[in-house]
Structure formats: structure tokens, C-alpha cells
Design a protein that fits this description.
Length: 94
Amino acid sequence: MAAYVLFPPAHLEKEIGQEVIDIEEKVQAILECKFQDWINAKLIVEDEAITPTYAFLGVVDSILLELVYGNDEKRLKDKLAASWKVFWRGISQK
């Protein structure tokens, strides 16, 4: 399924592309709302919710690509651990 999203058949490219954009916009809106709640509660440090939202989506995209193209479970786990560590350090109060 992931291959169809990344490399859809030419006759489905527009439809699949729009579906992906629609889903991403919905997910982004939910994440942005949650990050704003956490900023307001002073659980994370940030000025605007969009910044950690985009950063988090970047981590997710990276891990999804590793899942699709990677073939090494240890590398996947190491990449997730490192990405999360740096992401969390960047937004946490500690």
C-alpha cells in the first residue's frame, strides 16, 4: 500500500495525492491543537504550536520511510530512539 502512496499509478496520481494531503492536513490540525494545549499548560517550551507539529511530522515521515524502504529492524529502532530523544529534548522543559 505504501508504494501506491509514494509512487501511485499515473492515472491515480491526482486522487491519491489529494487523499494524502487531506489526511495530512487533518492530522496536522489535531497535532497542532494538542501541542498548543501542552504549550499553554507549560508542559513543553515553544512559542508557536506549528513548530513542534512540523518537527514531529518530520520524525514520523522519517520513520515511515524507514519502514517502507529499510530492511533493518535495529536501524529502525535506533533511528526512532535518536529522533525521539532529539525531538523531546528540543520541546521539553528539562
